[in-house]
Amino acid sequence: MHVLVQIEIEAVDKNGTFLGSLWESKTNISSVLLQVGLARLSSFGLDRNPYAQNLIEAEKTAKQKKLKVM
Question: Which of 2, 61, 7 has the alpha carbon at shortest distance from 31?
C-alpha cells in the first residue's frame, strides 16, 4: 500500500527553517494532531499560515473536550 504525502512550505526564515503543512491525501496532519490533543499551536509564523483559522479551531476543540494538549 502506498500513501501519498505532500509537504507545503508557507515560509522560510533567515536560518533556512521552514514553516509548512504536512498533508496525507487531503488531510492536514497538523489539524488532526491538534484535534486529538497531541499538538499545540505556536504563535510563531501562524500569521503566514493560510490554514491558521482551521488550526486554531482544531486546538480549541481539543481544549473544550479537555483532551491532553501538549
Answer: 61
Other CB atoms within a 10 A radius of the CB of residue 26 amount to 6
Residues 64 and 60: their CA atoms lie apart, in Å, by: 6
Read off the pLDDT of residues 45-65 as tens digits, 9 standing for 90 and up.
Answer: 788 888 999 999 999 999 999
What is the rounded distance in angstroms from the CA atom of residue 2 to the CA atom of residue 4?
7
Quote the pTM value.
Answer: 0.79
Overall size of the chain counted in residues: 70
**How would you classify residue 28: left for phi > 0, otherwise alpha for psi between -120 and 50, otherwise beta?**
beta
Q: Distance between CA atoms of 68 and 33, rounded to whole angstroms? A: 11
Q: Compute the mean pLDDT over every residue in the chain, rounded to the nearest whole number.
A: 88
Contact yes or no for 58/35 (Cβ under 8 A): yes
